[in-house]
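Hello,

Following up on my earlier ticket. Below are the two sequence lines again, exactly as submitted.
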Amino acid sequence: MTSNPELDKKLRPIYDAMEVGNYREGIQLCNKALKSQPDLHIAKALKALAFERGGKTNEALALCEEIQWSKPTDEPTLRTLSLVLRSAGKYEPMIKLYENAYKAHPKNENLANHWFMSLARSLDFKGQQQVALQLHKNFKKNSYLFWAIMSMTLQGQNVSANQPNVLYQLAERMMAKLNNEGKVETLEELQLYLIILLGQQNRHVDALALLEGDVGVKTKAIENVELRHLRIQLLIQAERWQDARDATVQILKEINSDDWRTILQYFDTIFLPVAGADLKTSDNLTEARAFTSELAKNEGKNPKRGPFLAQIELEKRVQESIGDNKDTVLALLVAYFEKFGSKSCCFEDLSTYLEGLGQESALEFCRRLREASGEKADTVKEITIQINLARFERSVGLQAKLNPTESMALVNKFWKLYEDALPLGKDLSETERQYGDDYAIMAAHLLIDIHKETKSYFPLLNATFMLEHALNASKHNYQIKLVLVRIYELLGAFSCASGIYNTMSIKHIQHDTLSHFITDRVSSYGMFTEALSQLYSAHEIYHSNESETPEMILQAYKYSTFSKIQEFIEFQSRLENSLQKMIADREMIRLEFLREDSVSRAVAWLQELQIDNLKYDEAFCQARVDNRDTSVMLNWNPKGSPSVETLTRPSAQLGRHWMVLFTLVPRILKHMAHLAAIDDQYEKLVAALEALLLTATPASTATSSDSEPTHSEFTAEEIKLGKIVLKVATTFQVLSLAIAAQNSGSPSKVDPAKTAATVKEHLTAATALLKREPVKSTGVLPWGTFHALTMTVETVAYLNVMNQCLQNLISTKAHKKAAFKATNAAIQDFMAQCRQTLQSVQTDVTALRNAVKPDRIKNGLLYEICDGSSVDYVRSGTHQAEIEEKTLKIGASWMSSLVYLQQEAVARMV
Amino acid sequence: MSSLRQFKATDLFSFNAINLDSLTETYNISFYLSYLARWPDLFSVQCTPSSTLMAYVMGKAEGTGTDWHGHVTAITVAPEYRRLGLAQGMMDLLERVSEYPYDGYFVDLFVRCSNKVAIEMYTQLGYSIYRTVKEYYSYETENAYDMRKPLKRDVDRQSVRENGESFLVEPHEVQF
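Thanks for your patience. The regenerated structure is below:
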């Protein structure tokens, strides 16, 4: 609201309309107000806001620009404009507007603050610094000086370490002056000072002096958990060993005996001073042994794990530096298991130490545990112990040694243990996991092993039945869900996978880290609409980052939380430059292209396609940040062998090369869609595609021993697609140049017959690449089947457009069309080949559709699953109805994919 | 064997083992960052030696006069890491920070009346029921207990009372 009651009265109905979401009425009321008072900025700004809220961003922005020209200086107008521009992701214009307003009202501190904030939104550190200094000059508050210092620090942070950093030096001088005047008073101001000192080389002694000096004492810096940690780190760097050790001992004894990073610092104070000396005779070692065992003794009835792991860590270090200590470490590991074996995290606690001991000791460890614990699994504790033991046995490779029959026996054993554990959890609330859930997951891991070894898909089908069954008793166990999603994907059952994925409430920031589980190569399942909706909803996080994170950076300035500003900026940048964001973006482009099922619409779509974001240069690729979470899935596989997450990928993990391929393809197509002349740009695109394919190896055949640098992010089908596009792109180039030469009548013009021959040669090569093997139905339609089919449809969809462009080149660009008759015929031939390819897809899909009809599934696949199965879960007889239901569901998922795929294929037979 | 440290904005990229659990809600960016921007020392996390996030607590300081206190907004432990005393370590830190630098009179938290496990844990940590908030959770009819633990500044122990569960208040009365 404004400070003018009369104006307020006029605007009230507009605000009211907006508040209830009635933007149309809001616009009408604004128009009315503007009619009587055309220069009423606030009414115009509110109208822009109504446009923006009503989804008409372009109209809103046009209005904003109009208002900008008239340089408004009243706060309500500026605030409203800022709202509109911010939600459109435009930050720059507000800087000028606030600057202008402040200069018109130099006593208005609020406007000056807005000016600073508008710069902070755009990360304009230099501008911030200047404005903050002006703010301080005019309004005399210290906080503005700290803003200025922070801004300088941000400018200085990218200066390389071995260069003198003028900005840091300047910031430091200002800080020192403030400190001398006693004006550094808060923890956050102190932290800013420390950031500046530690951002320069070899300043740890000064930082330490600051922490231990007046300001450190005044702010009780070492009460803060981060500064306490930092102080010890600095003491270690300064080689003040005793002080550092005393500080860690005090924390571990009095505050938190479980604090691992302090335990590690304690060990630094023990080992670093005697590095190079004989550890055996060192007093430090004796002291450390006494101290850690004292810590362990002090633990009472509910012991913390820290002190006991500290003992293991200590003896491990002794083993590493003087050897001959494996037995001690092993004994400690066994003792630790006796104490904490009934805690779920025991496996994780010990596994790195176990790896360090080598295979022989690891096996001995397992043998001893088995000897001590036997097979007893009658209580919740015993079950956890048994599960931990089984994890260790898997991780040391005991399960990898089994043949498929032995593995299957173990699957059955685990399943029985899972079922035996259920009665103990009958009173657990719905949100909790059953005690034996990990048995079910481990059974699934074994079935995945068997699948990998035998190539049979039946183990995977069995795994889905067992995991789905386990979900009945643990509705929310996300570990079961994650592995289930992946197995369904391997089985080509997209609806089943997305059904499970959608129950996991994955949202906000998790879209960036976890959506790859469902969106990687999601177009392969043929269900383009569903694929797009998954991608669109995941993409919202990047818009949130644009609109929310800058505001949070401003909050940090507002509350003078200097320790968080760099962190927030890093967070913003990691999301902004997320690799997953770009991968998803390219997949969306593929799908949006495929949504246009007529050639003319596809051409129009390409012509409209914005290329600002379709970058592929090396610098751009290298600046992508991989935020994908691949470690959250449980994994007990031996170190050095692929994790379960890796093993259950239906295809190679997507990365920068893949991103480049699906950047080049639409860009080349776009150039062709415009029938644009061959220029540098186009030649670069084609050359980049050629170079990319030259080093590409299909993931399945990649070997690490290849001497040539290769990358294997692609499937064989993707490489084929790239090669075909390359052939036709080259054809376009040849033809375009020939037409241009012909038109100009230049002496360099090519003989039309020769052009036709070259075109034919390229298109024949493309035809050869297009040849496909018919798909045979083998009962299961795995991911690869769908991928091959959709990739063919996608390839032809591109070719339809490219062929049309080739023909249009002749019909619209060539002066003498008759000269290119033979070329045209070659194109026609190629088009016939494309049609034929689609026809063969269509034939295959029809056959597959017949094979996955419910009655065929029942009498075929289901029969095969059950007949003579060696899986107890399947044989038991009590699960038949469930197995039938799940099998039919998988069949139905295949059917939907096939139905959609067929529609897509038919629509492209031109 | 857990490192207890302040939560960083970039930890949001790796908190999935905690947040995939159905009882832990994932909020938008602003929610987490606004806490970090204002009370960075009341938002802490427990990590494994290999830097996996196991648990976190987020809190704020609020209230006026003798109501000035530390408030636990959310505390959560990933399923694999429960019953290890991680919550206790985090609460302990939050209480110390509420004492210094915030100088609060007490720490409080809300818990569903049906969540016996949590109530028992908080009781062991020194919290007692101060009042019952009627239908605290939106869209649900369940009541919540407001549990409090006095800090040194609360010399008269005003944040503790007998039979707190029988003091019923409406949700709007617990806003600060």
